[in-house]
# Entry
Amino acid sequence: MGENGAGKTTLAKQLNGLLKPTLGRVTVDGDDTTKKSVAQLSRKVGIVFQNPDHLLFSETVREEVGFALKNFGFEPGVVVKQVERTLEALDLAHYADTSPFLLSGGERKRVALAAVLAWEPDYLILDEPTIGQDYQQKERLRNFILQLNSQGKAVVMVTHDVEFVAECNPKVVLMSKGEIVAQGQADEVLSDDGLIEKASLVKPQMAKLFSQLSEFGFPRDVVDVHRAKMLLGEKLSEVRVRVAQSS
Amino acid sequence: MAGTQGEVIAAHGLGFQYAGSTSKALEDVNIVIRQGEFVLLTGPSGCGKTTLCRCLNGLIPNFHPGEMSGELLVDGVSVAAETTSELSRKVGYVFQNPENQLFALTVEKDVAFGPENLGLTREEIRDRVDWAMDAAGTVALKDLAPYELSGGQQQRVALAGVLAMKPSVIVLDEPTSFLDPRTAEEVMAAVDTLRRENGITVIVVEHRLDLVGRYAERIVVMDHGRIVADGKVEDVLDSEFDRLSGLGIGLPKVSVLWSLLKRDGLVSERLPTHVESAVKMLSERLRN
# Structure
């Protein structure tokens, strides 16, 4: 996370060799990225860029999603199965024979994601995946990411969407002016005024709320709605009991 | 110049089906928007919000062919009786991705493009360009190339270009998508100021209610091509909370929190839509 121009996408592109470092080294599973081609690195590291229109070109969604698999040399039978599975997982099966260009912006984003997920890279990098997605789609995306993560895949998300990050509560790396300025759990980082300021972000609503309720003894590092409800619920019940007792 | 009693947009039984599609994108849409209103148009992906907006400036049916039914009046005139270029003088459209609407060599040239094509005098063009760039906060950018700008700057330049046409309505289709939260706030605040100072009617299509909710007075919710809720933001959020949740609308987290507390009988006030009102209500309760 970080302001526009902080270097997030530049860093992301280092991870599959699209960009090579001018100083220092980047390795993927021990392999130096300067010693491998982008095609070789892509087998393990998949990047889904922000603007799906920079990626989509096929006549149908099915062809789009199968393209990389074919290029990696998968058997036709495997390609068909993988494509079906991926389309199902991303709720795109009904669009299989539709042109990607007839779909809405949010739907095209899902097709781009499907096109990369199809070959199941070990490391998945998502550049602003929530843009143009409605809440339900974001929920599905979140569950999907958590599922991939539980299957042992690494997921790196470049995003501004603090509320989405608050719900996922991942490890957060904050960047500003080309440097990493902080790393930590989302609830710690996103509730820290100084860090938020530095990275030009805004606090998630729950963090904003709790930072103004500290006089009542609440912790500040609350970003999740359910935790917020639990903490407030306890105090409000206490107050209710006190009021009832004193009357 | 508005139609009946300051009605800037009036739709009666409006329907639309894209050519080659098997279902209606808009069905029986009835809505009246008055001059100076700030309307938040929302709904799940595919509900018809962008389709409705495209009908307002003639992109539908002129660039997106299909079958239109019912009636749609902009400034009292039926859209069927006007060309896209005529409608674009009344309805300005700022697209989601500013990259899609900026193309000139410099910001100033881009903003001037619209008025130049209206056949105005040089002085009039100059005036409009100066006013629009100032109103959108882009004067400092005037000699830069649009592609050199950040997303937020591009969005503001796109807005300036639209303003230079002096439309009575501005439609912003998910304008904050490509912006960081800070810039999103700034752009929304700028749009609201423009509205209040110039009487421009604003329609913002947005999934993220927390970003626009504080500026919009009215919210219109769509689902499957129909309008399913229409009213003041606080009223609709409070009375239709469960339904909106079910539709997958991105409700402000404070509203979600409140509905959870309300369900347990711990609070009874109306759902707050922003943090400030929630802080106030909670502090009062907790100080007892």
Observations:
- Chain A touches chain B through 48 residues (CB under 8 Å).
- Residues 204-247 of chain A form one domain.
- Chain A has two domains: 8-201, 204-247.
